[in-house]
Amino acid sequence: MKNIILTADRPTGKLHIGHYVGSLRERVKLQQEGNFDKFFIMIADAQALTDNSGNPQKVRDNVLEVMLDYLSIGLDPKKITFCIQSQITALPEMTEFFMNLVTLPRLLRNPTVKSEVAMRGFDKVGMPVGFATYPISQAADITAFKANIIPVGEDQEPMLEQTREIVRSFNRTYNTDTLVECKAVLPENEASFRLPGTDGNAKMSKSIGNCIYLSDEPDVLKKKVNSIVTTPRKLEEPGVIENNVLFIYLKALCKDEHFAKYYPEFANLNELEVAYQKGGLGDGKIKQFLYNVLMDIFTPIRERRKVLQTQIAEIIEILKQGTEVANQTANQTLLEMKQAMGIDYFSDDTFKNEQIEKFSNKQ
Length: 363
Ligand code: ATP
Ligand code: MG
Description:
The chain has about 375 residues and is mainly α. Helices cover about 55% and strands about 5% of the residues. The chain starts with a strand and ends with a helix. Bound molecules: adenosine-5'-triphosphate (ATP) and magnesium ion (MG).
C-alpha cells in the first residue's frame, strides 16, 4: 500500500503553538523521514466558512498567513503539495455522495463537534447545516487523496473515525475498494495531544483567542506568557503540576538542552517538577524559563517568516500549482467513485451500449 499523508488547517488565524506540538512538528518529522509516496497539505477555507460565513475576508486574509507559517517551520514545497480546499471541485461532489451514507444522529454524536457547537453558541442560535456536516466534507478531503496517514491533534480522532466509517460503508455498499482507510498520527508526547489555552481553557484555539502564535514578537510573547492563568499560592507552599498550564507547555516543548542553556540549576523537567512540588519555587521563575524556551524554538521560525513575506508572488504560485495537482488527484478518485456507483454515464460507451441493448429487447 502507498503511504499518502494529508493534513489541513482552517485559515481562521495564524498558526499557534497548539498546532505546532499537535500536528506541525509531526509533519516536519514525517517530511524528514521521507517514508511517503505523496504528501498533501490543504488550507481548509471552505471548512473555515462553515462557521465564518459572514466574514469571508477573515478567511481570505488568513490563507497566506497559514501558508507562511507552514513554510517558516520548514515544510518544503519540493516534497509537499500545498492546495486550497475551495478550489478542488471534486470535494463537494464527493461530500454529497457521502452524506447518503451517514445518519443524522451518528453525525451529531461527534464529541468534538458537540464542544465546538457549544463554544460557538450554535446551541442557542441554531447551527448552520454546513457546520453540522463538516465532518463529512472532511472525509471527502481525506479520501479524495486516498490518504492513509493523518498527523493531527487528538480533537481530530472523532473525525477520522467518521471518515473510516464512511470509507467502509462506501466500499461495502458499492462493492469496491476505491476508498482507503486512514489513521491518525498523534504526537509522541501526551501533553501535545491537546494543548490548553493561555486562559486555562482545555484547548488552545484560534476561535477562542487564547493562543500563542508561532509568529508572536518577543514583547507579545512575554505578555502572553506572563498572563498565563495559574493558581495563586504562597511561595513556600507546594506547587501543583496537575493541570498546570505552565508545566503542560514545558512538557510539550522543552528539552534537556534548554535547562543547560537557561536553567542550569536543574538537569531536566523532572527535577524542576520535584522542586516545584516541594514549594519555594514561584510561578514567575517558571514563566521566565518558559519564555526562554519559546524564544529558543520560535525565534528562527519568526525570522524565516519575515524573509518569506518578501516572496509572496512565488508562494501564491506554489499554492496555485499544488491546487492543480490536487484537482487532478481528486478528480481521478471521484471518477472511480462514480464508476463504482454506476453513475459514470459518459466516461465511455458502456452506459450507451447497455441502454440500447435493454430497449432493443423491449421492442
Ligand atoms: P479553529 O478554532 O478555527 O477550529 P484551531 O485552532 O482548532 O482553529 P484547526 O485549523 O481546527 O485549528 O486545527 C488544525 C490542526 O491543529 C488539527 O490537526 C488539530 O488537531 C491541531 N490542533 C489545533 N489546536 C490544537 C491544540 N490546542 N493542541 C493540539 N493540536 C491542536
Ligand atoms: Mg479546530
